[in-house]
Design brief:
globular, Farnesyl Diphosphate Synthase, single chain, mainly alpha
């Protein structure tokens, strides 16, 4: 198992309160559908953008209370007073995936994460009725860090799709060219580059981790597991000196035991 932002979505988890499982599934289905439009299949960019625009029109219909093709999402939005703007942010990020292949610096990358990752945590906080600004900020830190972790885990896979999420400024700072990614070259410069990226993501995860204590209960424990999953992947990247080409890190059964133990310790 890998750490992927949407695969960390707690869909139908036994840790999730029963009354929230259907709303979470509705949000997940929307996010997954939009993500697949941007990433999967052989559609031309123009068709991908048209399909995302059609989803945006569905959001307009939901917000206006008109008939739409997403009754489960519409019911969730109304019942839980979800900000539709957060769902629009997701579509904006997925459209960006179709057209943007490189990021100049961390400011640009974090703006992408603000729209591609952070809305998920904020939507969940709305479902939990715990969307205070301080908690939202911690949620943003976790969601962005998970997105970054996924990027560093999948450098080679993203490059094969024509995307480089490592900011150009970071590549320049460590003296690494884009050709190193294509060649899968792991040298001292590459290892230093990746160590800096994992350190940044780790610090963000740890800064958001207190959110689990604030939420408490089964939801809090699930969040601890998600945080520990991200931290474990970062550990694995560091353990192979950033060689995500030949030794892409994934979570294995023993990792889940380690993560569960760590999550239990975090709750004390």
């Amino acid at each position: 198992m890998s750490v992927d932002h949407y695969e960390n979505f707690p869909v139908a988890s036994w840790l999730l309160p029963a009354h929230l499982r259907a709303p979470v599934r509705a949000i997940y289905r929307f996010a997954r559908t939009a993500d697949d439009i941007a990433d999967e299949g052989d559609d031309a960019p123009s068709l991908r953008l048209a399909k995302l625009a059609a989803l945006a029109a569905q959001l307009d219909a939901i917000e206006a209370g008109r008939a739409n093709d997403w009754p489960d999402l519409a019911e969730t939005v109304v019942r839980h007073a979800l900000p539709v703007a957060l769902l629009r942010d997701l579509l904006s990020a997925f459209a960006q995936d179709v057209t943007v292949r490189h990021y100049a610096d961390y400011a640009a990358l974090l703006d992408y994460c603000r729209r591609s990752a952070n809305p998920i945590g904020r939507l969940l906080l709305h479902l939990y009725r715990r969307h205070e600004p301080a908690l939202a900020a911690q949620s943003d830190a976790i969601c962005t860090a998970l997105q970054l972790t996924n990027f560093w885990q999948d450098v080679a896979l993203d490059f094969a799709k024509g995307r480089i999420y490592l900011p150009a400024a970071e590549l320049h700072r460590f003296g690494v060219g884009e050709d190193a990614i294509g060649a899968g070259r792991v040298d001292a410069a590459w290892s230093a580059l990746m160590a800096a990226q994992t350190a940044r993501a780790r610090a963000m995860l740890e800064s958001g981790a207190p959110l689990a204590r604030s939420l408490g209960g089964r939801i809090g424990f699930e969040l601890r597991l998600v945080v520990q999953g991200g931290l474990r992947i970062l550990e694995r990247i560091d353990a192979v000196a950033g060689d995500v080409f030949g030794r892409r890190p994934v979570l294995r059964p023993l990792d889940w035991l380690r993560m569960s133990a760590r999550a239990a310790l975090m709750s004390r």
